[in-house]
Amino acid sequence: MIDLTGRTDVLVPEEVLSELSSACRELGLEFLVVGAAARDLIIHARQQSNPERETDDVDIAVAVRAEGQFSDLIRRFPLVRGHQNKITVHDVEVDVVPFGDIEQARTILFPDDHRLDVNGLQEAHATAVSVRMPNGTEIRAAGAPAQTALKILAWRDRHEANTKDGIDLRVILLSLSADPFVNEVWGDDVALDATDADIITAAAFHYARIAAEPFTVHDGMAVVDVLHDTTLRALLTRDMRSNLLAPSLLDAYAKGFLTGLRC
């Protein structure tokens, strides 16, 4: 449990998460915070640091067993015009992504025939971290390892329109080589040996291995394929905006992720 009780510097609006928690509880649904809000709760709030890229919205993923459950949740809130899965809660836009039993080949098909890849959300849900917000609301959020895999997959799907996921990936990977995340990296001889004891790349290797463990080999290879594709790799390096560090971070991450898949 990450306990943020009494904190006044948490950027994610608790009133929004409290409202969503109540609605999901009444409908028998489980949700987890993902995206930039998860980054801010799991990483920046713990490190008491400011995000390089701030955001005004909140992303959540909802585990549903039938399509009707998702519709029931969406109908409880004002729908953002032109969107099927974006609602407004306390004047904050919330992207709601369903996953779970309604998936087809790790995708979700919306009524307008838009198909969304949700690979990684079940894995993030299985390894989610509990967070107690400043005023006591308890939620679950994607853990730091899961966030790295989700960022790579999100970047793959939308980098032509927006490069923000590349920036986020760099920020998250570098954060994992600092307190409080770095302590367990120093105890990982496999990661240290694989990276010549360079703690920054060792952290990428270590947390990539953890990120991979919930995946099947088939589904996890979707992450690896992005990093092994020469063209995509070059574009991701560019979007991470760190030509010196990005290549070594991605090398270590790919090696660590493959290690986790094969365990």
Cα-atom radius of gyration = 18 Å
What would the principal axes of the Cα set say about the shape? globular
Number of domains: 2
Strand arrangement across the biggest beta sheet: 2-3-5-4
Could you give the distance between the termini?
Answer: 27 Å
- Give the averaged pLDDT, no decimals: 95
Number of helices, counting only DSSP H or I runs of 4 residues or more: 12
- Tally of DSSP β-strands: 9
The string of secondary-structure elements, in order, is EHEHEHEEEEHEEHHHHHHHH
Shape-level CATH architecture of the largest domain? 2-Layer Sandwich
The stretches of 5 or more residues where confidence is low (pLDDT under 50) are none
CATH overall fold name of the largest domain:
Beta Polymerase, domain 2
Which structural class fits the helix and strand makeup? alpha/beta
Portion of residues within helices: 40-55%
Protein name: Nucleotidyltransferase
Organism: Flexivirga caeni
Quick structural summary:
This protein is of the alpha/beta class. It comes from Flexivirga caeni.
Describe the structure.
- The protein is of the alpha/beta class and 263 residues long.
- The chain folds into two domains: 2-142, Beta Polymerase, domain 2; 147-262, no CATH class.
- It contains twelve helices and nine strands.
- The strands form three sheets. A four-stranded mixed beta sheet has the order 2-3-5-4.
- A hairpin with a 5-residue loop joins strand 8 (129-132) and strand 9 (138-141).
- It is globular and about 55 Å long.
- This is Nucleotidyltransferase.
- It comes from Flexivirga caeni.
